[in-house]
Amino acid sequence: MNRFLMTLAASTILAGAAFAAGPGPDGAGGPHRMHGPGGHDKAMQEILTPEQKAKLDSARDGMRKARDEVMASLTPEQKTKLDAAHKPMRERMEKMRGAMESILTPEQKTELDKARGGKTPDQMTQAERETFRTTMKKVMDGLSPEQKEKMRELRKEGHRRG
Asked: Which whole number is the average pLDDT over 47-76?
């Protein structure tokens, strides 16, 4: 049962991270990303009815609640093991984020920092994540051709390692 809980917790956390991650470095969703400006969700949002959109939002909320319930039920030892398992992934993501931000101008960085409000995606409300995604898309749409090419190369490199 403990192995089942760990697997379930890891799956729900990773799914939650994917939902919270927002757009990739070029403003588009990656191959496994299901939402964010320019990703699969944008195309879905254009064709779904309001009722379907409400059902999708409800399903996403249900996933978040299930993840939160599983996380609340973990023992301190399980949480420690889970944190240790996620550490390499978090470090890789931070390294990639730093590399991507090194491509941005000081003004672009300031705009994103302001939109982020000093919070991580897990600390943001859904509305704050949406605001950040919108700002991220605006910044990424405004990249120079050279910046866009550097971002594409970083993404390719990141996918090769993963």
From this structure: 90
Residues 98/77, Cβ–Cβ less than 8 Å: no
Question: By the 8 A CB rule, do 68 and 62 touch?
Answer: no
Q: Confirm whether pTM is higher than 0.70.
A: no
Taking each helix axis as running N to C, give the angle between helix 76-103 and helix 145-161, from 0 to 180 degrees, rounded to the nearest 10.
150
- Token reading at 11: 């799956």
The residue with tokens 């993501």 is 93
CA separation for the pair 74, 138 (Å, rounded): 39
Q: How does residue 18 score in pLDDT terms, banded at 50, 70 and 90?
A: very low
* Structure tokens given for 112: 């994103």
Distance, in Å, from the CA atom of 118 to the CA atom of 110, rounded to the nearest integer, reads 11
List b or e across 97-136, with b for residues whose CB sees 16 or more CB atoms inside 10 angstroms. Answer: eebbeebbeeebeebbeebbeeeebeebeeeebeebbebb
